[in-house]
Structure formats: structure tokens, C-alpha cells
Amino acid sequence: MEYTESQTFANNTVALGASDIIGWNAKNLAKLNDCNPAINWQVKVKENTNSAGDAEFTATVLNQATCLALAPNFEKIGK
Q1: Residues 2-30: b if buried by 16+ CB within 10 A, e if exposed
Q2: Angle at 75 (CA atoms; ends 41, 72), nearest 5 degrees
Q3: CA dihedral defined by 55, 24, 77, 2, rounded to 10 degrees?
Q4: CB 14 within 8 A of CB 7
Q5: What is this structure's pTM?
Q6: Per-residue pLDDT tens over the stretch 6-42
């Protein structure tokens, strides 16, 4: 697996707004069952407007058809 952040962070922090930003992506480097090598998992972060100072996470399996079975609870992160 290869993990990448889509942004650079000053002192490991970022100001969150109402729009999602990509926190990180995960790419499998080899084929895993039917899940082809690609960026297949992603976490987005934004401000939780219902709770001051909190973050809202959205974890997504980008290729639902072939990769969801590898981590079926991944999309429950942050819920």
C-alpha cells in the first residue's frame, strides 16, 4: 500500500472549511483479488458545522464494485 496526502500541512495542521479536502489516499500497489492497483481508498475532511472546532471525516472506497469487500467497514470511519 502507498499512502499520500494531497496537501502540505504547516506543523501538521490545516484550517478546515465547509468544503471537503482530501486528507489522504491509499493505493494498492498489487492486484488484491479483483481490486486492481490504483488509488482505491480516500478520506476527506471538513469542518463539522454542527460542533465548533470538530472535524467531519468521510471515508470512501472509490472502486465499490471490486475493492469494497477488502475493507467493508472502511466507510464507517468517523461515523
Answers
A1: eeeeeeeeeeeeeebeeebeebebbebee
A2: 85
A3: -160
A4: yes
A5: 0.83
A6: 777 777 777 888 899 898 999 999 999 999 999 999 9
